[in-house]
Design brief:
4 helices; two-stranded parallel sheet; 11 strands; alpha/beta
Length: 202
């Protein structure tokens, strides 16, 4: 029997008029509250948090997320769940995927987000970037000079398994994405392409 609760959790910080989202966790099943016993099964590196906001604006620490139309989070969960089913494996209890971002300012308008993040030149990055992950999937989209400025620090992300879908070829590339890599976003991505590859990884 699944526990009651929420599937998506993060911590939020307000800096001036901008909201930053950190330690975003996409759980495969609802949980009552995050704990140190929860198991990170992998990480996804995206551009920036979009429309998702805190469910309780005045609460600190990890709290449930109001997705607000965000498609990446539920899409990632669906793909990973399908990979476990295809692999005939049961994920650990309280399993979650860590969402990392090129920068952590929340704004669904990427062009505006890039303009706003330039104002926050000393904005911190997510502490979870220093963790060791079972696998890392890059989904930061096509090459962009503006976004490439943020990609260099991901050259040191720790995992033995890195992969992404090359936007031009549509093929899964089993290596770390670089500043020049065009790593297909999950929006519109065929699950039939990525699920078999992820099945072999999980």
């Amino acid at each position: 029997m699944k526990s009651s609760g929420y599937k998506d959790w993060a911590s939020f910080e307000q800096v001036g008029s901008d909201t930053f989202r950190y330690d975003t966790r996409v759980y495969l099943d609802p949980i009552g509250a995050p704990s140190q016993q929860d198991v990170c099964i992998g990480a996804v590196v995206g551009k920036n948090p979009g429309s998702a906001r805190p469910l309780y604006a005045s609460k600190s620490g990890l709290q449930p997320i109001d997705l607000g139309g965000d498609k990446l989070i539920p899409n990632v969960r669906s793909i990973v769940r399908k990979a476990y089913v295809l692999a005939a494996k049961t994920p650990p209890a309280n399993a979650y995927i860590q969402i990392l971002n090129l920068f952590y300012l929340c704004n669904p308008d990427l062009e505006m987000a890039i303009k706003r993040i330039k104002i926050h030149s000393t904005a911190k990055v997510c502490p979870s970037e220093t963790n060791i992950f079972p696998w890392i999937w890059y989904v930061w989209g096509s090459h962009s000079d503006d976004l490439s400025l943020f990609k260099g620090r991901f050259a040191t992300l720790m995992s033995n398994t890195h992969f992404f879908v090359n936007t031009a070829s549509g093929l899964v590339v089993h290596s770390r994405a670089t500043e020049d890599s065009s790593a297909r976003h999950t929006q519109g991505l065929s699950h039939d392409l990525i699920v078999p590859a992820l099945r072999r990884i999980v």
